Here is the input.
Amino acid sequence: MTTRTTSRLTELSGDDLATLLELIGGADSVELKLTLPEGAQRSAVATLGLDPLEAQIRQVFFFDTPDLVLNGSGVAVRARRIQGGKGDTVVKLRPVVPDELPDDVRRAQAVGVEVDAMPGGYVCSASMKATASNLDIREAVTGARPVRKLFSKDQRTFLGAHAPKDVDLDELSILGPIFVLKLKFRPREYQQKLVAEMWLYPDGSRIFELSTKCLPKEAFQVAVEARAYLESLGIDLSAEQQTKTKAALDFFAAELRDRPPAA
Here is the structure.
């Protein structure tokens, strides 16, 4: 298995540690993540000195069936519009074991293998990314362009190899948008670059995530240093963690299921 639930990354059992080390050894990068409960978000923003006006606006769409067949198969399909930059698309598989990926996939420049780790667990994923213009994405989600044209030939092949056989990109439901505020910053008291993301859901709920990326060989040192830095600010690392993608998929899938049938 490539997904584990644990107390802390630094307090793994021997078996879990061996599994994690194997995954990290085969990955291209490690992303350490922490989500904060809504009651702690305002104080964390103030403590970290974050300025919301410096954040970049993003608009995220997922594509799946109303009963989340792709998600249930370990596949996520996403398009993202980015203020002041190019948009992008991704087809992601998780969980994966890097050494079990086909050689052509593992060697592909467009594919990145990453271990995501947070208090409570970790997962390894393989993502194939491509650029897409913000206009093209808007046209696709409004029905003016086929969804499949957002994705490269390689992405469609990648999806076809791992999605259920009867899944058609153009027939998938559009789950979104989620508005995201993303801010990269480097605190003076901590040398590692951090990223803050606020995901704003249509029902008014929010997920606030702090993260940092590092090379696999740096993962445990960065994890220990990040934990020490955040705890020194009084930020609680023990809260139940939330997954941004899962929350988005569950919200919009439920909205689709509750929608009255067309007359």
Notes: The longest strand covers residues 173-185. Residues 1-7 have pLDDT under 50 and may be disordered.
